[in-house]
Amino acid sequence: xxxxxxxxxxxxxxxxxxxxxxxxxxxxxxxxxxxxxxxxxxxxxxxxxxxxxxxxxxxxxxxxxxxxxxxxxxxxxxxxxxxxxxxxxxxxxxxxxxxxxxxxxxxxxxxxxxxxxxxxxxxxxxxxxxxxxxxxxxxxxxxxxxxxxxxxxxxxxxxxxxxxxxxxxxxxxxxxxxxxxxxxxxxxxxxxxxxxxxxxxxxxxxxxxxxxxxxxxxxxxxxxxxxxxxxxxxxxxxxxxxxxxxxxxxxxxxxxxxxxxxxxxxxxxxxxxxxxxxxxxxxxxxxxxxxxxxxxxxxxxxxxxxxxxxxxxxxxxxxxxxxxxxxxxxxxxxxxxxxxxxxxxxxxxxxxxxxxxxxxxxxxxxxxxxxxxxxxxxxxxxxxxxxxxxxxxxxxxxxxxxxxxxxxxxxxxxxxxxxxxxxxxxxxxxxxxxxxxxxxxxxxxxxxxxxxxxxxxxxxxx
Length: 462
Prior knowledge:
7-stranded antiparallel β-sheet, 21% strand, 15 helices, alpha+beta
């Protein structure tokens, strides 16, 4: 459906300026440019105005005005997404939530925290560390809670602790017409009515704007044990992942790095690794003796799958450096490919199909003749293939799009999804019909119900 939106004139800007203080609304060039693009390869689009709200009531007033005037509104967290999710493709208003970043309450006895949507999850965990608690989803970068809810972010610890949706209890949401609602409950479980909370998780701000969340906290593990395991081929490493899970080992994190990524990983972490696929495995448990037994079983399984090296007994400082390097890969890869832009696939498949999908993606990347890398949140079947295309080279980018398309369609064919954690945004809309079939029409109906004027992050998902 083609929607007609109103451009913001001086009159509209003045009305918006009465809702927030003067220093929290801007039409300045630098602010518009800073909110024109995320970290994806998609082209920039400048909004007409940027507003920094500080309360749900301000968000409500802004949306009520925008809905009546038919002005598009795009929520903005950290701008770290990889699918064009926060790019304001219809211009209008960008709501930047970086000033709504408070921890409202920590309830240690309930293992819960109430937070505003602009809070960076790492800042929350820095505060919780002193209380022996943490918020498990770990997508890397400087992701905000609101952005994580919008994309149902996951990260390295999702295998054991789940994705963002598994660690949410309650949301405060502002709807397109300005109405403020609360969905979910602070109880640890509920069988009361429809689970509206799940509608907003992963909706990328297209159904409502999340302003507050009650998140589930976990106790920091008493002990941990990490290992780096090398294999001759990606398929062997992927098979080891399946076998470890089938053995019931329950790793907290299980990452697969292809040979190109393992070399980057080794050089930046200071650990010498063979030029071969590597599994980075971590287990959490109540005692060192328990973890020693688990690690012995993991080593036996790895050998049975053809491992060529198994390094365990990693200390806390070295372990922290490993995960710091793993999270930095998203920044390291573009940095060493000067003059190139990044396209990232983000497919996920059933774990039984993981070895097959990894082998397919790795082969596609190797034969592309373009700088490419494969790394995976292996335990939940989530595969990232990154291509670094030369800026302005249409032939090379046509080849990248073709290969990326084959990888995504193969994942869906194997019963998987076009996006495991990055969201649909602009880049994956073309796959929605193949993945969802007739259910896509019900998504469109939900959009019409919650946002009949299509002002909320238009152009995304559908």
